[in-house]
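Team,

Forwarding the record for the chain on the shared tracking sheet. I've put the sequence and predicted structure together so nobody has to dig through attachments.
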Amino acid sequence: MNESLIGKCGFYCGSCVTFIKGNCKGCILEHNPGDCYTRDCVIKKKLHYCGECEDFPCEVIMSQPHTTVLDKDWLKWKKVSDTNR
C-alpha cells in the first residue's frame, strides 16, 4: 500500500476505479483548496486524516453531501459507538 494514496478522509485512492483507470492522480495530488471540504478541514487542523479529529465524525460530514466517501451508515454507527470514545 502506498501511503501517499491515502486521502485526507482516510479512503485509499489505490482502491478507486477512477484512480486505477488512470483518470485521477489520487486525492492528495488531484484536489486543490476548495475542491474537498474534508481535505481542506484536515489540512487546516494540521491532522493527517479526518479520523484523527476529536470531533470525528463531525456534523458536517454526517449531514452535507459530497464531504466524504465514507459510508454514511458507518459514520452514524461510529458516532454512537463506544469504540469511538
